[in-house]
Design goal:
It contains four helices and five strands, in the order ββαβαβαβα. By secondary structure, it is of the alpha/beta class. The two termini are 15 Å apart. 17% of the residues are buried.
Length: 107
Amino acid sequence: MKILVFTEGTIIMHQSALGLPRTQIVKQVIENKDPSLHDWASYVPIGKAVNKLKTWKNQQAQIFYLTSRVKSSEIAIIQDVLHRHSFPKGKLLYRIETNQYKDIAEE
């Protein structure tokens, strides 16, 4: 089984969202005023995302991560966040040039 998981907003979130209800987190993202939104290095796991992905990995799932970042320096930061928070190993995918998310998913 292959599993494709979006990173930002699905399994990791900006640090100042910790402990807030979903409605407030969404409001923070829409307003786009919180500096931690763009500090990807400080992103933290959402809920029990790490454990859920580890469970799937233990069931022999192949994990693929998909980031919204497109700059190589930002992609490296997301990779580091996944590693630092002990997400299971998996390939980190990203868009280049004119790729859309669907193009990555189809691959």
